[in-house]
TrEMBL record:
Residues 329-357 are annotated as: Disordered. InterPro entries: GPCR_Rhodpsn, GPCR_Rhodpsn_7TM. This is G-protein coupled receptors family 1 profile domain-containing protein. One of its GO terms (cellular component) is plasma membrane. Residues 329-341 have a biased composition (Polar residues). Keywords: Cell membrane, G-protein coupled receptor, Membrane, Receptor, Transducer, Transmembrane, Transmembrane helix. Its main location: membrane. CDD domains: 7tmA_GPR84-like (cd15210). Belongs to the G-protein coupled receptor 1 family. The gene is HaOG217243. SMART domains: 7TM_GPCR_Srsx (SM01381). Residues 44-300 form the G-protein coupled receptors family 1 profile domain. The chain crosses the membrane at residues 28-53, 65-84, 104-124, 145-165, 193-217, 248-268, 280-301.
């Protein structure tokens, strides 16, 4: 055997030894969960988007714009990443080419950043409403909201442009785990920096913001009696508005905590077990991360009355549309039925017509 052939054989042997062999049961579970989450996530986030846009009260709410950004991000993940992930685990290798692999990683990490930055925007919005209520309408104008949304998406996917172009790291296939991810290039990789600025820092901002919200709400409750007027209303917001905002803040906090509970295990496993010594734990952590894009519509429906009203409004609209179509179809055929009140007149009219010879 020549030296070149021996080196090629040695490289192939080393690659085979480095490949992570997931248990068959684990890959089947991952593929099934990816398929289920894909269908449920697409339906749930699409229904939520339509329901919020159709509900008059929520449609004009500032927080709804950021929630819609979150829904669109989850919708992209469920419709693009999860089906490709299911295919990867079914075949236990990536066979869809390098271009699609790069697109997968670009959308995956970009969407994760959009979700977190949308939550940051929601948290800051909640704090501004509670701490600076008198200035709230000036800070959150329609133009400024759209600028914030545009920045969220540009920054999130802009962070992925350097590895996409191969300037700083590269997007590609990790053969050892048959996953499309951020790979080092020339010994450099932005993965740690993206983790700090795209995940850890937003989480810190959200935690600090909610801590400030809790402190301001607690302080506000102590001064509540002193701020009441003779009419029984607060000087800034009415008691009902205050209660609705408090419920909405609780809802957004629940969404963040669930997001953290879903993604934190995967982050810990990637850092603590980089060599994938425990494949089952990596699979379970990945499934939890996928679930983060599915559970938000369930949280909306379970914890907030206004969001339940939006879902009910959409369901009522669909029912009325179905009944309307049936009524229209029935009215078109009614004239031809013997039960129609105009049936006798039409029949007599036909009798009066001369027969064609």
């Amino acid at each position: 055997m020549s030296d070149m052939s021996f080196d090629m054989y040695e490289n192939i042997t080393n690659m085979e030894q480095n490949i992570t062999h997931y248990p068959t049961e684990a890959t089947i579970l991952a593929a099934v969960c990816a398929c289920i989450f894909s269908v449920v996530g697409v339906v749930g986030n699409l229904v939520t988007t339509v329901a919020l846009l159709m509900h008059p009260k929520l449609r004009g709410h500032v927080t709804t714009m950021f929630v819609l950004s979150l829904c669109v991000s989850d919708l992209l993940f469920c419709s693009i990443n999860l089906p490709l992930t299911a295919n990867r685990y079914i075949k236990q290798h990536w066979g869809l080419g390098p271009s699609l692999c790069q697109m997968f990683a670009f959308v995956f990490y970009g969407n994760e950043a959009v979700s977190l930055l949308s939550m940051v925007a929601i948290t800051i919005n909640r704090y501004t409403l509670i701490a600076y209520y008198d200035m709230y309408s000036q800070i959150y104008t329609t133009t400024k909201i759209w600028v914030q949304l545009l920045l969220i998406w540009l920054v999130s996917f802009g962070l992925m442009v350097p590895p996409l172009l191969g300037v700083w790291g590269q997007l590609g296939l990790d053969a050892s785990t048959f996953s499309c991810t951020i790979l080092p290039k020339d010994g450099k990789s932005p993965k740690k920096y993206l983790f700090v600025f795209g995940f850890a820092l937003p989480c810190v901002v959200i935690i600090v913001s909610y801590s400030c919200i809790y402190w301001r709400v607690r302080q506000s409750k102590r001064k509540l009696e002193g701020r009441r007027c003779v009419c029984g209303k607060l000087s800034g917001q009415t008691a009902k508005e205050k209660e609705e905002d408090s419920r909405l803040t609780t809802l957004m906090l629940t969404i963040f905590l669930c997001f953290l509970a879903c993604f934190l295990p995967l982050m810990i496993m990637n850092v603590a077990d980089d060599g994938i010594t425990y494949p089952w734990l990596h699979i379970i952590a990945s499934i939890l991360a996928w679930a983060s894009s599915v559970i938000n519509p369930l949280i909306y429906a379970a914890t907030n009355r206004q969001y339940r009203a939006a879902y009910a409004n959409l369901l009522k609209f669909c029912k009325n549309s179905t009944v309307g179509r049936r009524t229209t179809w029935g009215s078109r055929t009614m004239g031809h039925s013997s039960n129609s009140p105009h049936y006798a007149e039409k029949r007599n009219h036909m009798k009066d017509k001369p027969a064609n010879l």
